[in-house]
Amino acid sequence: MQVRMNSHLQPVSKSKGVSEKMKLLNKLAVVLVFLAGFPAAHAALTIEIVGSGANQIPVAIVPFAGESTLMQAVTPVVAADLQRSGLFKMIDAAAQPQPHEPAEVNYPDWRTRGADALAIGSVRPRADGKLDVSFRLLDTVKQSVLAGYSYVIPPAQLRATAHKIADEIYEKLTGDVGVFSTRIAYIVKSGARYELQVADADGYGAQTVLASNEPIISPSWSPDGTKLAYVSFERKKPIVYVQSLASSRRQVLAQFKGNNSAPAWSPDGSQLAVVLTKDGSSQIYLINADGSGVRRLSNSAGIDTEPAFSPDGASIVFTSDRGGSPQIYRMPLAGGGAQRLTFEGNYNVSPHFSPDGKSLVFIQRANGSSFHVALQDLATGQVQVLTDSRMDESPSFAPNGKMVLYATEIGGRGILAAVSSDGRVKQRLTTSTGDVREPEWGPLSKNQ
Amino acid sequence: MTKILLSTLLVSLLAACAGQETKEQPKAAVESREAAKPSGAEARPAGQQGVAVNPLKDPNNILSKRSVYYDFDKYDVKDEYKPMVEAHSKYLASHKDAKVTVQGNTDERGSREYNIALGNRRADSVKKIMGAMGVPDSQIETISFGEEKPRGTCRDESCWKENRRSDIVYQGE
Fold first, then answer.
1. Residue A98: partners with Cβ closer than 8 Å, 6 or more residues away
2. Which terminus has fewer CB within 10 Å in chain A: N or C?
3. Domain ranges (residues) in chain B
4. Full DSSP string of B39-102
5. What ipTM is given for this predicted complex?
6. DSSP H helical segments within A347-426, as ranges?
7. Residue A348 sits at the chain B interface (C-beta within 8 Å)
């Protein structure tokens, strides 16, 4: 139950813009940082991007002044973040001269190179050991400053700061909230060992939240990102726990007779929906976040499972076989009948709402044993299949609704993947060892 | 020790019946045993002191059979497994201190959480037969491992059919 650095995930050759030397330095930093109780920087997942957005915004990111001597350069992380979204075309900014202040920028030159936007900045050490990071985003057409920020940070937060800068650029240029500072949770199975891990959205800084010789499934982020609920089989049956990420302290949330599984937080974090079999079949119950006050929510003779709250907290969607095959239903929390939402095919499971509550992402079985990520518009009922892989599971939206994270398989091994909610951009996050599965994208960080 | 010896007697009766066709016979055997309420000494078969075989482990006894297998997406107990489930029901009905966990399992296809629920339906289908034969709820817990603890790890039907399964596990095993 201790937080532990994972050592079995090795950086894979494709990690972008990170030299071997830097990786070593990263690892060194990891140990120190870890001892200090901060999130660690450590390459865990390698990202591959397939496809691109409809209209890529051409942007140049000039290496920041002073970053080349640091243990973690800022701009390669920013560039990798933006590139991963599929929405940006990265314009080469390696050629001299490299501006670091607006006054040094030759706008027509950057226009000629094709950049609509230009990011410049610097990292300067301070007397107290901290770093001064400043950056500006410039519009090369209007020759104006779109955004400008500076941060005073300990060196260990260079990656985190790079993600913040990427978020700022993303937000200014697309109008949507950036999610590069968010985290993901997932399970890694290596041999007989199961680990619940949390990593940055780019796969770095993986930390083990829980290690066990029995299965762990269904991690679910609390809305404030400070806790994870999950199902552990360590006592030879499924029991739901809630664990604080900062303190590693955890408590049993639901341990009734039979199965306890499928935890899902309410948007205000006060309660969770869980699936219990204490009264017979798998049914959905509400339970307070401290484990008190369990009360039954669904009432069917068959299976009701995989609850997920609507963003307004007024209803849940869930999977039920009440109609003869597993389909997705919606039910108001205040009481009242469940309404069937999916009608295509005979197997639709694992629903999650989009952050705006307007659509659902779920898994649809196509023919026999082919499982895809599908998106349904709740107003029109129209379904779009987003993936063409065969064994997709556990989809969840990024908190800006632009990407969907899910588990799939390549060469018989479980990996994580993400697809843009329009289906155009796909990413694969692969590790060198183990099966990765059961991902859930965490919420926006509080200071965002 | 007494329990084991008692069980031995019951087992040999059940085993004898299992080989035959008529369904009434095991019932009669259980009843006669209960009526007799033999003490350990009375139940000890002559000449078998200390070598009694636990009926639950005796490969010749139907009680050593523990697994029910299912069709894809199904949870009903097929006829071929009913005599075995019934034998365990009778054992439980006559051994009030025995408790079982029925563990439901599924193949790997589909949602992990849905498979937990499907595995539970499978375990529950076994429990329902036991309940109908007079075994109280307090002696049975149903749990599900879903697809999490596969017996076969290959990626085709030869393993999948092995994994669509309920196991009857006695407390302390």
1. A62, A63
2. N
3. 1-58, 65-173
4. -HHHHS-TT-TT-PPPTTT-TTSGGG--EEE--TT--PPPGGGHHHHHHHHHHHHH-TT--EEE
5. 0.87
6. none
7. no
Q: Answer whether A369 sits within 8 Å of B149, measured CB to CB.
A: no
Contact present, A77 and A166 (Cβ < 8 Å): yes
Asked if residue A195 lies in contact with residue A186, where contact means CB atoms within 8 angstroms, the answer is no
How much is the average pLDDT of A16-41?
A: 33
Q: Distance (Å, rounded) from C-alpha A199 to C-alpha A183? A: 6
B1-40: per-residue pLDDT in tens? 444 444 444 444 444 434 333 333 333 333 333 333 334 3
β-strand pairing of A131-139 with A315-320: unpaired
A259 touches chain B (CB under 8 A): yes
Given a contact cutoff of 8 angstroms between Cβ atoms, the answer to whether A316 and A333 are in contact is yes
Whether the CA torsion A100, A103, A109, A115 is positive or negative: it is: positive
Domains of chain A from N-terminus onward: 55-178 (3.40.50.10070), 183-441 (2.120.10.30)
Q: Are B143 and B121 in contact (CB under 8 A)?
A: no
A379 CB burial (10 A radius; 0-12, 13-18, 19+): exposed
CATH class as words, domain B65-173: alpha beta
A113-139 exposure pattern, b = at least 16 Cβ within 10 A, e = fewer = eebbbbbbbbbeeeeeeebebbbbbbb
Looking at chain A, which residue has its C-alpha nearest residue B109? Answer: A369
What is the biggest distance separating any 2 CA atoms in chain A, rounded to whole angstroms? 72
**A259 with B143: Cβ contact below 8 A:** yes
Nearest CA in chain B to A392: B110
A260 forms beta bridges with A276
Within 10 angstroms of residue A172's Cβ, the number of other Cβ atoms is 15
Number of residues that make up chain B: 173
Q: Which secondary-structure segment (H or E) carries A407?
A: strand A403-410
Q: How far is A340 from chain B (nearest CA, A)?
A: 17
